[in-house]
């Protein structure tokens, strides 16, 4: 048999395999992927990764029988500019249907201008939406020792971005644990393992609405 014959045979076999795959199956992993882009708070800094809120989210989705693949692309020390630089590759690689952005804390700790944080967050939202992903934004706040002017300008970034881009927002991700005894590690910045379930509970209503495509504005928290 000739080489041409073998090529034709392989071509026909390949076409058969393609047609034998149920419609939509090749897109299932992309359609069901949730990407978390965050910093050390979501990277489970100082605790076992299995205790972190993102892993707890995976487990809760499994318990709820929701076929969602959770990718944690969070890195300790990440800034909004670093997240923005990494996002195009992450979107291309994972093709997420949903994106949770938990960034900005390190911008604030380094005293970066709130205006640059706002620009970076908006660009991330627009990049994600251009790729067909829906975005949930988790807000942060700075401690009072940074001064009233800076802390207020920083805190205002998240609702402004959420309103401008019409995306759901958790105004202050650490709200349920920030002042809770035993909920923060000795550095006063990172939540303990004990605090992780409370963090998940805080974002869960927004995550549920996001997955069910029932979030039409930024007011998804109680």
Summarize the entry for a quick read.
This protein is α/β, with parallel strands linked by helices and 222 residues long.
How are the elements arranged and paired?
Blueprint: H1 3-20, H2 28-31, E1 33-38, H3 53-63, E2 69-72, H4 80-94, E3 98-102, H5 105-109, H6 114-130, E4 134-138, H7 148-165, E5 169-170, H8 196-211
Helix pairs in contact: 3-8, 4-6, 6-7
Attribute tags:
about 220 residues; about 45% helix; globular; single chain; Acyl-CoA thioesterase-1; Rossmann fold; disordered N terminus; alpha/beta; Ester_Hydrolysis_Enzymes; 5-stranded parallel beta sheet
Shape type: globular
Helix proportion of residues, in percent? 40-55%
Succession of helices and strands: HHEHEHEHHEHEH
How many β-strands, per DSSP? 5
Q: Give the strand order, joined by hyphens, for the main sheet.
A: 2-1-3-4-5
CATH class category:
Alpha Beta
Mean pLDDT rating: 87
**Radius of gyration, in angstroms, nearest whole number:** 21 Å
Pfam families: Lipase_GDSL_2
InterPro entries: Ester_Hydrolysis_Enzymes, SGNH_hydro, SGNH_hydro_sf
Signal peptide: 1-30
Domain SGNH hydrolase-type esterase: 36-195
């Amino acid at each position: 048999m000739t080489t041409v014959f073998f090529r034709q045979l392989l071509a026909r076999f390949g076409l058969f395999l393609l047609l034998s795959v149920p419609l939509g199956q090749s897109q299932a992993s992309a359609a069901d992927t949730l990407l978390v882009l965050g910093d050390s708070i979501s990277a489970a800094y100082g605790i076992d990764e299995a205790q972190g809120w993102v892993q707890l989210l995976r487990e809760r989705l499994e318990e709820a029988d929701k076929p969602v693949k959770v990718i944690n692309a969070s890195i300790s020390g990440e800034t909004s500019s670093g997240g923005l630089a990494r996002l195009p590759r992450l979107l291309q690689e994972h093709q997420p249907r949903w994106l949770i952005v938990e960034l900005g804390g390190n911008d604030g700790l380094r005293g970066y201008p709130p205006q640059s944080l706002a620009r970076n967050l908006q660009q991330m939202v627009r990049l994600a939406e251009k790729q067909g992903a829906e975005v949930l934004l988790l807000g942060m706040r700075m401690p009072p020792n940074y001064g009233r002017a800076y802390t207020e300008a920083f805190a205002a970034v998240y609702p402004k971005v959420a309103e401008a881009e019409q995306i759901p927002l958790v105004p202050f991700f650490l709200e349920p644990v920030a002042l809770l005894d035993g909920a923060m590690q000795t550095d006063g910045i990172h939540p303990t393992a004990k605090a992780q379930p409370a963090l998940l509970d805080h974002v869960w209503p927004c995550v549920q609405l996001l997955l069910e495509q029932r979030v039409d504005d930024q007011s998804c928290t109680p």
